[in-house]
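chain below, 141 aa
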Amino acid sequence: MTTTTIDNTVSIYDRIGGFDTVDRLVETFYRNMDELPEARGIRAIHADDLGPTRAILKVYLAEWLGGPKDYSTQKGHPRLRMRHSHLRIGPAERDAWMLCMNGALDATIEDVGIREGLRENFAKLADWMRNDPDNAHDKRH
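prediction:
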């Protein structure tokens, strides 16, 4: 897994305030998913109890941002597309996910440069997660 860092010495995880900020980011993300009408479709593909999903995302994001390697230790390689392959993820699901994440980023990440960098990286990840027939990542030339 590639971690996201600003430079070689200080991780984004540390720059944003560590696990406390990751925790707030994930909590805000899932609150957005529960509350935003535009997120109804993506919320419906999740379990009623988001507790386990929240916990996994917190550990994953902490590592992805350069924090403790607990996700890899517990679960191995993320294999995000494989782990989500049973779900239909198209443009609407991607856009709803990003709506929730963008709101969470705006509410929790104070540093504008870091926030915009994360927004860009999350957008790339969300688009890559699409498993619909029109996903350019899956087209063979």
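The chain has one domain: 18-134. The CA atoms of residues 105 and 115 lie 6 Å apart.
thats it, cya
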